[in-house]
Design goal:
The complex is a heterodimer of chains A (111) and B (114).
Chain A (H helix, E strand, L loop, with lengths): L3 E4 L2 E5 L4 E7 L5 E7 L6 E6 L5 E4 L2 E5 L5 E6 L8 E8 L6 E3 L3 E6 L1
Parallel strand pairs in A: 2-11
Antiparallel strand pairs in A: 1-3, 3-8, 4-5, 4-9, 6-7, 7-8, 9-10, 9-11
Chain B lengths: L4 E3 L2 E4 L5 E6 L6 E8 L3 E9 L2 E4 L8 E7 L2 E6 L8 E8 L8 E2 L3 E5 L1
Parallel strand pairs in B: 2-11
Antiparallel strand pairs in B: 1-3, 3-8, 4-5, 4-9, 5-6, 7-8, 9-10, 9-11
The chains are: A mainly beta (111), B mainly beta (114).
């Protein structure tokens, strides 16, 4: 099946630093999505990308849909303590509407 | 607008007991997904429905697991009999098929089987 490789697995950064994480796949996806999960909650959608090469921002978050359609990255600028959580990438094809998730990047922000 | 609603939020049961998890979709959505999350295996898709019809149940672990959509806005995931290895957080997500297909997750049910 389609496998997503998400890296890094975890990050420990200082407040104010920028963060970058990415996902790669051996398969092509038509949609890439990034979610954030806080402890005890379900994943919350941050950004959805629909077109190869698309670059989309949501506040301090920026995500790009790779031109090959096999990768995506998420950047967080000027991190703050509430950015702590697990970030998941997810890929979706047009053949069906289910998603495949990466293993997640656990972000810790030190004040 | 209300998001995806799941109940119960927490369930503790003994091995062998039947467990029923419930999910209410976002109003107007027509696709429903059940996921299981564990530390070891991450987020796994168990089954999903489009317009009340099960499309892919290949992620359902075994026959002890079953899922239904008795109507367009509600679903149940049943485990009978439950086993300790079923302990996990179970999420339900809904989306609008034909729209952006983005999935919106419920808060999850934390299941502990003793």
């Amino acid at each position: 099946g389609q496998q997503l490789n998400q890296s890094p697995q975890s990050m420990f950064i200082q407040e104010g630093e920028d963060v970058s994480m990415n996902c790669t796949s051996s398969s092509i996806f038509n949609t890439w999505l990034w979610y954030k999960q806080d402890p005890g909650e379900g994943p919350v959608l941050l950004i959805a990308l629909y077109k190869a090469g698309e670059l989309t921002s949501n506040g301090r978050l920026t995500a790009q849909f790779g031109i090959t359609r096999k990768d995506s990255f998420l950047n967080i600028s000027a991190s703050i303590p509430s950015d702590v959580g697990i970030y998941f990438c997810a890929g979706q094809t047009h053949n069906n509407n289910d998603m495949r998730f990466g293993a997640g990047t656990r972000l810790t922000v030190k004040p | 607008d209300a998001g995806v609603i799941q109940s119960p939020r927490h369930e503790v049961t003994e091995m062998g007991q039947e467990v029923t998890l419930r999910c209410k979709l976002i109003s107007g959505h027509n696709s429903l997904f059940w996921y299981r999350q564990t530390m070891m295996r991450g987020l796994e898709l168990l089954i999903y429905f489009n317009n009340n019809v099960p499309i892919d149940d290949s992620g359902m672990p075994e026959d002890r697991f079953s899922a239904k959509m008795p109507n367009a806005s509600f679903s149940t995931l049943k485990i009978q009999p439950s086993e300790p290895r079923d302990s996990a957080v179970y999420f339900c997500a809904s989306s609008f098929l034909g729209g952006g297909n983005e999935q919106f997750f419920g808060p999850g049910t934390r299941l502990t089987v003793l």
